[in-house]
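Exercise 7.
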Amino acid sequence: MLKFLTALALIWFVWWRLRRFLWHRRLRQQGIEIPEEKGPRPITLMAGMLLAVYGGYMLWHLFSLSASGS
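Solution. The predicted structure, written as C-alpha cells, is:
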C-alpha cells in the first residue's frame, strides 16, 4: 500500500512540475515577467513529505509490533 501511495505522490509531483513549467513558458512567450520563487524548493518539500510518511510508517510498525508482544 505504501509503495502505491509513493508512486501516486511521485506521479502527482511530476505532473505539477510539468504544468508549472508549461505555464511559465507560456507567460515568457507572452512577454510577462515571472517573479523568482522564494522559499523552499519543491523537491525539498517532496523529500520532506516522503521522509515523514516513511518515518511515520516505521514508527507505526514498531509500536504495533511492541504492542502485540512479538
